[in-house]
Design a protein that fits this description.
466 residues; alpha/beta; FAD/NAD(P)-binding domain; Enolase-like, domain 1; 7-stranded mixed β-sheet; 5-stranded parallel β-sheet; 32% helix
Amino acid sequence: MSEKFQTVVIGGGPAGYVCAIRLAQLGLKTACIDSRASLGGTCLNVGCIPSKSLLNLTEEFHKVKNLSNKGIEVGNVKLNLGKMMQSKDKAVTVLTKGVEFLLKKNKVTYFKGTGSFKSRNEISIKDHQNNEITIQSEKIVIATGSVAVSLPGIEIDEKIIVSSTGALKLEKVPKKMIVVGGGYIGLEMGSVWSRLGAEVHIIEFLDHISPGMDKEISQEFMKILKKQGIHFHMQNKVETIKKNASGAIVTTTDNEGNKNQHECDIVLISVGRKPNIEGLNIEKIGIMLDEKKRIKINRNFKTNVDNIYAIGDVIEGPMLAHKAEDEAIAVAENIVGQSGHVNYNTIPSVIYTKPEVACIGQTEEQLKQLNQKYKVGKFSFMANSRAKAIDETEGFVKILADETTDKVLGAQIIGPHAGELISEIGIAMEFGASSEDIARTCHAHPTFSEAVKEAALAVDKRAIHS
């Protein structure tokens, strides 16, 4: 007889393991299946965590190289890329082992292997030696995440033509790197290798980087990255990528039809991700997909098959770990009859470059499209005492509020610690706060957070320090 569970989660990333833990906390006999050798999904293994580790390490390297400008004399600074990669790998190992401990602590049964549907209540699990077992479950949650996509006809080999996974494991600093795509991942990885000495060129099909971001922030962001030495080729379409003895040649066409060729050592393809649903055998049980091949769900994360749910990157919405985690908790609570929900308007997004970029809620472009009248408050880090004291003055805070009610509708921050600062706006929005509520809240001095307060004051044209 196959083992029986009340709930099974397929996938052990931020959506999957969080969901499994919450289900177990709610008293259900739960299993979690993951195909990797370690838990944590793309995020912990080959995404958020290793990339943030490298972003931090390369920022430290860049800082040390430039300390003499600030009166701190150091000797010849050398890069040991092997040790840097070991440090990154150590961070990943500690965290993935930590997730395994959390499953054990919460009495979640963990299966290492690839899960697929045999029926709506049966799951086949094949391990890496191709041994197969079958388990049964009353309810099943699909949380298998996403995988990188390439361009038509271009094969990623993770050596010369790489995805973000390969870009995290390069054995030497490329002389020249072409990044195809000016989104979050491409800009972060481009920053990593640029700091280490690579000549980095970003090729983007649109006329702006970081699609979906507030245009004013996007323009400022590109200006700052250009000053850091990153090259941009906007409104260019990649036609071909051909490998040669020294690397590859990328052929592009601009919006006027002119062809350009870029020789490089490494090409990073960073044009998006797609739901990781191949091999799940969902067609066997009739699970419906939308036009973008994402799993269709209702407001309770339930698919058209009554006992099967889906969360994270396999469904509609931004492919962000924290969005997936919120959905994980919500679906677990819905399964036991509680009222789990996710407020998609207060999910922040962050680009961990230097400076960081963070956004929440609506942009000016979106508000204009909705014909919603709004007020804008902006404050530059150039006028922030803490930023001036440590010479990190690039960027600004921008808050958007309803013209009539003053309710905060969104915010965008480019500057030091933007990813941390945005959480204040998130809390304010969750409680329906006005910009005046933020402006009248005492902020410690000197802190970067004072820029948020000043931007809130600026909504009513009463900023003190600008």
